[in-house]
What does this fold into?
Amino acid sequence: MLFSNESVANFINTYFEPAWEMVRQVPIFRLDFGNNNVITRTLHGNIATYVCTSSGEVLDALPGIYAPTAYVDSLNQFRLLSNYVDREGKEKRPQRLKDYHQKQAETLRKNEAPFVLVNSAGISKAAIERTVAVLVAAKDAHLYPSMDGRVLHAKATLTKDKLQLDSQEELENWKLLSEDTRLNETIRRRQIHALLADAGLVQPDQIKKRIYKEVLHADLDDPYLGLGNMLFTNYPFAKEDKAP
Amino acid sequence: MIRSVFTFGAGILLLAGTLAATSSLAEDKPIEKPAYITKSTIEKPAKALLAGTFVNPKVAPGKVRWHTDFSIACETSKKSGKPVLLFQMMGKLDDQFC
It folds into this structure.
């Protein structure tokens, strides 16, 4: 699980005040083969990660699941964003945030690499209270060092060679996670940026249903989470199953 | 010969009795067609039996030091200066199947 990963957990514990909440019960699928073999799986376990101010206002959101390295990179961007939007005072926060999201949405719409936030304070001043976040083009991100002194790339890439994959199953899982991460960072993030540029400063509850329906394709108001057609079309006992 | 006559007569009596009984049944109760039993009628007892039997085991929610809820994370954030990270999901992070 993502939060059992040491680097992910340490980063969150160091730089955030974290909380989790359930948006609805997860659908659970159990297939009993009748010979004491039972498979249990979950369906549509979609997740969203928000960074918020201390007033609970949403600054940004990550849709879906990420590979650990990409997740930490994105959380670092979140950390810098919270500094960036307040650099000209809290009264300028709404406009700076809107401009940020509009800029990112437009860049992704053109299939270009998104802008990245870097700490221009330098290595020696890279403490939380001295963070000076600036927005730079992805191609210039390498000019700025990361907090631990390493050159920070715009997005760390997850490559198979860096992983020790012991089985075919692990390889397949890595491929799925890698594809999920790519999808999240392109199509879904563009949707999130457009949505947040439009919504302005809102609480998570005000935007939760839109994110789940429009970005994660899991309508929380639909009792079958969008799977109704697949489950009931051409099913001969559909009427009986729905009857009280 | 007497035995044969006796056996024949017993057989006649048995046949007559059977015919009489059948005739009597037919007159009192017409044969009814069984009612259609729906799939949900058959499955309801099984569903009732299985309802509530699945227990989702509890697990540790990773190594992150989670606040109890979002509002407490926000209050703590006002003192620490750190931004709040809210993780939303279907199901519970401390359930095995989530």
User: Anything to note?
Assistant: The beta strands of chain B are 84-90. The helical segments of chain B are 2-28, 39-50, 70-80. Chain B has a mean pLDDT of 73.
